[in-house]
Specification:
The structure holds two protein chains of two kinds. By secondary structure, chain A is of the alpha+beta class. In chain A, about 25% of the residues lie in helices and about 40% in strands. In chain A, α1 (about 65-85) crosses α2. The chains are: A alpha+beta, B mainly alpha.
């Protein structure tokens, strides 16, 4: 999986930044991976915008006309992260239902590319399930094969 | 701390990945801390069952 993506900046392959570019201007985005579980090793994926005052937000809707490119850029950080830190579980959820739906839509749009390299699960109705398109989940786990 | 693969200034495998020397320290880390704690809490309540682990 090597999708088109914005230029990524990183110093340690755990923290990434890139710039969304569109009608609303140049918006800085950050992706951060941090270990949250040891057994099994699981990393949290945090994703959001950062403004000029270093204030983060994962609730703002950028409307910068580049959603697919932003999502494929985030997907690429997962691949690059795994390349450097190993194929561990990656956990992601949105702060809001709308944000979680956005992640789900992103996985759906890139599903053919993602499924080739990753196992993905979604949490719904008190259980984890293998990811299925067009099902609304509360949270996601992915692990590179 | 996991071992980090040594990488040259430009990652050769992936296009458009620039490895910077700068380590960004954000003034307010609460955004990340909150998200990571929320994730820990969720997974402690809802661990992935063994049957789904591969």
């Amino acid at each position: 999986m090597n999708l088109d993506h914005y230029t990524l900046f990183t110093s340690d392959f755990q923290d990434y930044s890139f710039y969304s570019e569109g009608p609303k201007g140049r918006i800085k985005k950050v992706v951060r991976f941090r270990k949250i579980e040891d057994d099994p090793i699981t990393y949290n994926l945090a994703f959001g915008d950062v403004n000029e005052n270093d204030i983060f937000s994962d609730t703002t809707i950028s409307n910068n006309g580049d959603t697919d490119l932003v999502l494929s850029t985030v997907a690429n950080t997962i691949n690059i992260f795994c390349d450097h830190y190993g194929n561990h579980y990656i956990y992601a959820e949105g702060r809001t239902v709308a944000r979680t739906r956005l992640y789900q839509t992103g996985i759906g749009r890139l599903w053919e590319e993602i499924r080739a390299d990753f196992d993905v699960w979604g949490y719904k109705d008190e259980h984890w399930h293998c990811f299925t398109l067009n099902v609304n989940y509360e949270a996601f786990l992915a692990k590179r094969k | 701390m996991p071992a980090v693969k040594k990488t040259s200034v430009k990652d050769e495998k992936f296009n458009n990945v620039i490895v910077t020397a700068e380590v960004k320290n954000y003034s307010d880390e609460s955004f990340f801390i909150e998200k990571e704690q929320k994730a820990k809490d969720f997974l402690s309540k809802h661990p992935l069952p063994d049957r789904l682990k591969k």
